[in-house]
Specification:
heterodimer; A: 165 residues; alpha+beta; 8-stranded antiparallel beta barrel; B: 434 residues; mainly alpha; 18 helices; 0% strand
């Protein structure tokens, strides 16, 4: 074996072989990492009708608690897009099983007192249920006459079809 | 049914934006493709959707994006066929040990560094629906890819295709791309099989059989194309149509087998005859429409999925910076180190590393697949798109700094020694390179 070939083999083992061993170690180590619970996808929300009726701004609240929401997840950060008339978008976070988002409610002309104020959308996920479910409440800190509206949401199955997009 | 008015309006807007921004980028000595990638992002939520949301919603209503995507995917299928057609891994053999080592290190270095980075990013930018192994392997393959077509274009523009640097870079990029796509195919199979009733071994078995049929069966039949071209100097329209049908059939097979349309198209290109004039002839027939019409739609569609607004706050920008740093250190650093260790002078080695760090359009193709199969999140997708833009944008100025024209003139081994007919000179967004 010539010197060139020997050097090549040594260099190859050091620069390619060893890193691959390192890669195997990384993949092994990474298995123990814990990522946030997945909430990415479409959720169908159902609000508590009895609480809703008691709201001074039932229409506005209903647009967030009786609809579907698309949650786009990047780690702990969430973007929620409600499928209501104004396509309300909110940003939120997931911490453990707790999901929190701050939503600015769009004023409905027939509602009084609830428009353009922030609402807290908080929920707890049950990751073991099939499909996954969220239980939580929509509350208005700046509206003394409003009561929190409880809701329950079920994750919808992903649309079938693979391929590109 | 698509709203034809909306679709045609979208195509017109996309073409105009891509041409305009592409031309502006050419003025600053950047390949047109970089400008087109920027144009795509400008049309998405990162700029147009941010400053003029109503115009954006009118031009690109969500309901219409499926049609735009379908058109763009047809373009990418043809593009991947052309990429496969243009690469010739045999070039690597001619370059000897240095190129083999450089090529393999230019894959393993960014791959391993990306896997280390995945340890940090996984809990922060992923979720438990994605296994760490898939996440790390995807990050690795996304960071180790090289934009072979853009690289060829940059070399052609700098008259370096025949130089030692140029030939080694082309050979390494070809190997990188083939390897990167093989790894990606494996990841796609892993992820899709988890949601499929077909066992992973059936899928892998099917892919192996398909690959063997293509390499040992179809490849021989394809030599007939080269024969006809040699005899007549051209191919009939029927033969060209048949070629396109074969590309689509191969793409459909790989999609059916559970990988992706693009792998079949790429494989069909890779097993086509590699006689230089034949390759050039086929490229000329396909590239104009692909490059000028269909690929800009892909850039636009990618831009519409890229929301730089998701990268908000110092923490997210730090992740983005880390991704760019690791991608550059792995690819540029790894290639430079390996080629320097094999005896290439440091400056030339750094030039090679810079070229290998070009990711361009190939990166966008991979990232879109990653987003589709859910292995990366929208924010990470946006960060990786920024990384692709930065690493592609930096190539030309950094190369000019490391290997200025005066340096090329001084170094005899780097001067073009044979006619600069690129092995592939297409689809970097600049069509019809002579």
């Amino acid at each position: 074996m010539s010197n060139t070939s020997r050097n090549f083999i040594v260099a190859y083992v050091l620069l390619v072989g060893l890193p691959l061993v390192g890669l195997a170690g990384v993949l092994r180590t990474g298995r123990s990492l814990v990522a946030p619970i997945s909430v990415d996808g479409v959720w169908k929300i159902e609000g508590d009708a009895s609480r809703l009726a008691a709201q001074p701004c039932a229409k506005s609240v209903s647009s967030l608690s009786n609809t579907s929401v698309v949650i786009s997840q990047s780690g702990k950060n969430l973007v929620l897009t409600f499928n209501n008339a104004s396509k309300t978008v909110a940003s939120g976070t997931i911490d453990g099983k707790s999901v929190k988002a701050s939503v600015v409610l769009t004023r409905d002309s027939s509602d009084n007192g609830c428009g353009d104020q922030p609402a807290a959308w908080t929920a707890t996920i049950d990751p073991k249920s099939e499909p996954k479910s969220l239980s939580g409440a929509l509350s208005f800190n700046a509206c003394p006459s409003c009561v929190p509206v409880e809701f329950h949401a079920l994750k919808q199955p992903r649309a079938a079809g693979g391929g590109a997009h | 049914m698509p709203n034809l008015f909306t679709l045609v309006l979208q195509i017109a807007v996309v073409l105009a934006a891509c041409r305009l921004v592409g031309e502006l980028f050419r003025k600053i000595h950047q390949p047109r493709v970089v400008g087109e990638m920027f144009a795509g992002i400008m049309l998405g939520p990162s700029l147009l959707g941010w400053i003029a949301p109503h115009t954006s919603a009118y031009l690109f209503p969500t309901s219409s994006l499926g049609f735009l995507n379908a058109l763009s995917q047809v373009g990418v299928v043809v593009f991947m066929f052309l990429v496969g057609l243009g690469i010739n891994p045999r070039e690597l053999k001619k370059q000897g040990h240095a190129a083999v080592l450089t090529s393999h290190v230019s894959i393993t270095a960014p791959f391993v560094l990306a896997a280390f980075l995945a340890l940090y990013l996984y809990p922060r930018l992923s979720d438990d629906s994605v296994a760490f192994t898939n996440f790390a392997l995807f990050m690795g393959s996304a960071m180790s890819i090289t934009a072979f077509p853009v690289l060829a274009r940059i070399l052609a523009e700098r008259n370096m295709l025949g130089s030692r640097l140029g030939t080694v870079a082309i050979a390494c990029a070809a190997v990188d791309d083939v390897t990167g796509w093989c790894i990606l195919a494996y990841i796609v199979v892993l992820i899709r099989s988890a949601h499929s009733s077909t066992s992973i071994w059936t899928t892998i078995g099917g892919i192996v059989v398909f690959g063997l049929i293509m390499i040992y069966g179809v490849r021989r039949l394809l030599r007939g194309y080269e024969r006809v071209y040699k005899e007549k100097g051209e191919l009939s329209e029927n033969l060209m149509a048949l070629m396109l049908l074969l590309v689509l059939a191969s793409a459909l097979c790989t999609e059916y087998l559970g990988i992706h349309l693009l792998f079949g198209a790429f494989l069909m290109g890779a097993i086509m005859p590699k006689q230089r004039h034949f390759v050039r002839y086929v490229l000329d027939r396909f590239e104009t429409i692909t490059v000028t019409l269909l690929l800009p739609l892909f850039f636009a569609f990618t831009g519409l999925r890229t929301n730089i607004g998701l990268v908000k706050g110092p923490e997210m920008w730090m992740y983005c910076g880390l991704i760019i740093l690791v991608a550059t250190a792995g690819k540029l650093g790894g290639s430079t180190l390996a080629s320097w260790l094999t005896g290439i002078p440091l400056r030339e080695a750094a030039g090679l590393g810079t070229l290998m760090n070009t990711r361009g359009l190939m990166e966008l193709v991979i990232l879109n697949i990653g987003l589709d199969i859910g292995v990366i999140s929208p924010a990470l997708f946006s960060m990786m798109v920024i990384m692709a833009l930065v690493t592609t944008f930096m190539t030309t100025p950094v190369l000019a700094l490391i290997c200025p024209k005066e340096f090329l003139a001084r170094e005899p081994e780097m001067v073009v020694t044979r006619p600069a007919t690129p092995p592939i000179s297409l689809h970097d967004g600049e069509s019809q390179v002579a």
